[in-house]
Write a structure and sequence with these properties.
Rossmann fold; Dihydrodipicolinate Reductase, domain 2; 2 domains; seven-stranded parallel beta sheet; seven-stranded mixed beta sheet; 34% helix
Length: 375
């Protein structure tokens, strides 16, 4: 039986481990023994308590596995991926770190490593679907609207984070890269808000975030943007916090004590944004791809809506992100995708068999991407 090690036992990492445990020998690694205990006691998953931020320890952890999945926090994602590649291990990565992952391509090629990165919902499935159409039509524009939200809107933020608040805050402060008329432009995060209607939720507010990532370099599409969606009113509170300095990573001194505002804010917001056990939430995504196909104007619109799974007690964001990752893990383990180097999901999307496999894999887990055509 092939052996997989999942680095990180957070909400998404745990969902990945549980899903893969059905077919493979899985080990979950994290520094949080409570999370590991849950996986061991409830699912019989082998666990290792270790500090993954230390490269030498990480090297020992991954030594005897056929595939590594990195679901660590974004702050340590780049170095973790680099260490995995240096040790010659095939890897699926969902860490979503800010550094340019394509900088590791030469390293991965020389090591003979298959490294599929940004392998979640968005980035992830959005890239996969664009890659599919980019191979088959002249794409002129790409837009992705995506977000995860609680069913219940609660003042003041009307939001709950299905992953680390610090990673959410990163979306709110990192400048957003868009492509307009063939040129990369930089917009402030949270900029250009607009009201959008997405079924079955209704009216949401969309704003610029830095979600295009590898697409800026891997495809030649004149107009591309990704926007995050929230309940209307959420970003006003976030803007005030950001402009006041609560998201700054520069230390300040308060009554003789040195503190980092971002650390304090993350700690406070965790209490506000933490999803409670069995709290229902949903993920919504709408992808619009327009261009010319067979000399005719053509638009494809993909809609995905998913909710918290009461039976497995798995959050929607963990499902939609984690199961996209595990689908691709299966492709790599089966030898269906073996390209060496760094492979963002748009490369997988070039092959229709890969796309069909991933969509069917998700459908079997009741995550369905509905597609409609407009001419």
């Amino acid at each position: 039986m092939q052996r997989i090690v999942v680095l990180g036992a957070g909400m998404v990492g745990s969902a990945i481990a549980v899903d893969l445990q059905k077919q493979y020998a899985v080990t979950s690694v994290d520094i949080d023994e409570i999370r590991l205990g849950h996986l061991k006691e409830n699912y019989g998953i082998n666990v290792i308590s270790e500090d993954l931020s230390k490269p030498e320890l990480l090297k020992k952890v991954i030594k005897n596995y056929d595939l590594v999945i990195s679901a660590v926090p974004g702050s340590m994602g780049y170095q973790t991926l680099k260490t995995i590649i240096q040790n010659g291990k095939n890897v699926i990565d969902i860490a979503f770190f800010p550094e340019d992952v394509l900088d590791l391509d030469d390293l991965a090629r020389k090591a003979g490593v298959t490294a599929v990165v940004d392998c979640g919902v968005a980035p992830g499935m959005s890239n996969l679907l664009l890659g599919y159409h980019y191979k088959r039509m002249k794409v002129e524009s790409f837009e992705c609207l995506v977000g995860g939200l609680p069913m219940k809107r609660t003042w003041p933020y009307q939001y709950k984070a299905p992953f680390s608040p610090s990673d959410v805050i990163e979306e709110y402060i990192r400048p957003a890269r868009l492509v307009e008329n063939g040129k990369v432009v930089i917009r402030e995060a949270l900029s250009e808000p607009e009201m959008v209607n997405i079924d079955p939720v209704g009216t949401l507010e969309a704003f610029n975030t830095d979600g295009l990532r590898s697409l800026i370099k891997t495809v030649n599409v004149p107009n591309m943007k990704e926007k995050t969606v929230r309940y209307p009113g959420h970003i006003d509170y976030i803007r005030v916090l950001r402009e006041t300095g609560f998201f700054s990573d520069q230390p300040i001194t308060v009554k003789g004590q040195t503190v980092v505002p971002l650390d304090v804010s993350s700690n406070l917001l965790f209490k506000q944004w933490e999803l409670m056990p069995e709290e229902p939430e949903f993920t919504v995504m709408q992808i619009t791809i327009s261009g010319t196909e067979h000399d005719q104007p053509q638009t494809y619109i993909y809609d995905m809506y998913d909710q918290y799974d009461k039976i497995t007690q798995t959050s929607s964001m963990a499902r939609t992100t984690g199961y996209a990752c595990t689908a691709v893990a299966n492709l790599v383990l089966m030898g269906q995708f073996s390209r060496k180097g760094i492979s963002p999901p748009e490369y997988l999307g070039e092959d229709s068999e890969n796309v069909d496999f991933v969509l069917q894999y998700l459908k079997e887990r009741n995550i369905i991407y509905h597609v409609r055509k407009q001419q």
